[in-house]
Structure formats: structure tokens, C-alpha cells
Amino acid sequence: MNTAPLSGHRCGRPARRALASWSALMLLLAGCGGLPTATAPQAAAGGGPTAAEKLYAEVNGMTGQQRRDKLVPLAEKEGTLDLYTSMTSDVADAVLKAFEGQFDVKVNLYRAGSETVLQRIVQEQKAGYQGNDVVETNATELFDLNTEGVLADYDSERRRMVSEAGRQQGWTATRMNLFAPSWNTGLVTPDQAPKTWEDLADPKWDGKLAMEISDSDWYLTLFKYWEKQGKTDEEINKIFEGMASGAKIVKGHTVQGQLLSAGQFSLAASNYSYIVEQAKAKGAPVDYLPYVQPVIARPNGVGLMKTAKHPAAAMLFTDWLLQEGQALLVKQGLTPSIVEGDDPLKDVEIIPIDVEELTKNGDEWNKRYDQVISNGEQVDGN
Q: Do 65 and 152 reside in the same domain of the chain?
């Protein structure tokens, strides 16, 4: 493990930072499985809807078995689905195996971090090349893609079962990532484990606490929550400064979970609960329960591309992910966007991130968070 003072800023999330030249696109695609061989389907003359949008509009009005009976033969005739996602590899593998096992559709998968997924789609769209039919990634990146005007309208009975925060223009939440403090049980006893978010600023965690480099959405939400609770900006800034004092700054929640399991630090400020749960299930000495409340939730969702080459397959996948796929996500330890039956989180206070605020003013919140963690040590997980 290598440590060095944290310096510089990460790439911002807004799509305008994802724009690149054609030569940059060629380099990206060359490193991700080849150069484009076909251009994207174009909108109809006069700026009308694409062929994909026409199909979506037709199927959006259908429900139940009629809808599934319409999509399955069309999708299987297309035979292919091009999916871009930021799911972890184990979740993506399980999703593909189940979907391909149910339908005669071959999924071509591109999996990367959410910012990389965003950048690739925007670059391809600007270059007139359509690489994906559907995207499943973080809310902030989906807002950016919708702002770019590349996501199509989608409606279904299952979408209407998603909470309002997960029903956004251009995309629908499929799962919720829950930010929660987690700890190494070999280094932290139950009595020592944090009970409140403010506990993370206790000097006893100096040099023992990890923070993730891109968690400006968590930072924004907690900051706004404390404001509503009556804390002054000065008081809130002091708490975050206390957290960051001597903190280890990690890039990537999966890496953060791995290093926590290995005992490289005692406590992680804001990892995803499902990552910790998966490690715990495999015998790692980690825990996150009982939850520190309020739990901060960020939706991840799915969006249909207006220029999809395989629109029926894209819509079938979206329907499936919001129906059969929800139980599969639960098996993978994730929190589904549609809760059926007993809700295991019914007694837990959950607050969603303000995705619209983060998207509109993301640069400012990124800068503020970068400043918070600037005194930490960046940890190399390699």
C-alpha cells in the first residue's frame, strides 16, 4: 500500500466535462473493445422521433402480459442487447446470466465506473456513434445524460411502483445505494462503533478513518440534513474537518471495502452497505449494523437510449430489471427500488440525495468536498 498527500481534483461529473475530441474517442474505444463500425440511428427528418422512440411510445401504453408478448418476439428477433453499466462485476454477471437464461437475447456488456460510463456515452453520441441501447448507472450520471437529451421516455406499471425520488425524466431507479459507516470488527468493538454521523469526527479516529474520494453526493446530503437540524455552516464544516483530520482517502467503494476487510484502517465513513454485506457474508471481519441514521440513499437507475439499435431488447431488459430483476438484486445484497412484502428498512430513517442540486451545482459541491479531504492521505489500493 502506498500513501501520499492528496492533491488535485478528480474529474467533475457534469456531462460538459465528458466532451472530447474524435481522436480521444478513438483512443477510448480502442481500449474498450474496438472502434465503431456503424453510426447511430438518426432522428426522423425534421427532428421527429427515432425508430426506437416510436417503439417505446407504442409499448409504453401497454400493460401486463400483452406488453411482454409484444416485446419478447421483437427482442429475440433483434437478438442482441448492448448494455453499459457501473454495476460491480459480480452483480452484472448475475444479471446477465439470468436475463440471457430467460430470453434468447445476447447481452454485450461494457462495465466501468459511473463517470467512465458517462464519458463514453457522451463521447459516442457527439461522434454520431451509438454504442449502447440501454444504460444502468448512478443517478448523477443519469441526470447528466438526460440533460444531454439522449435518454427516451419510459413508462410501465412497475415504474409507477418506484418511489417519486426514483421516477425521474429519462430514467427510473432500479436499486438504491445506501451510504453507511462500516468498521473492521477486529479493530472496533460494538461499544466503540459510531452511533451518529458526528461520531466520525471524534479525534480517536484520526489516522484510522477512510473517506472515499468521490463522495460529494454523500457530503452534500449530510450537509443539507444538518442545516435543517439547525447546525450552522461553521459547525458543519468543523465536523467534516474533524472527519478528514488524518483520514485515508480511497478511490472506489469496492477498494475501500477490501482495505477495510484487510485492516488497513478501522472505519470507513461512507461505504455502500451492500459492499460491506457481501464481504461480511464471505467471512470478512466487517460490519455496518446497526445503521447510523439517517441512512443516505442514492438511486441507481436505468435509461433507454433514443438511438438504440435494439430498442425492443432495451425495453424488455428495463421491464425485466424492474420486475424479475428486483428479486435478483436482493439476492446480491442490494436494496431494490421496488419493495414488495415486508420492508427490512421500514424502521430506518432514509433520506435521498438531492440529485438535481448536485447536478446543477455539482462543480461547487465537488470543490467543497475536495477541500474537505485535501488534508488526508490518498491510499493506493494496488
A: yes
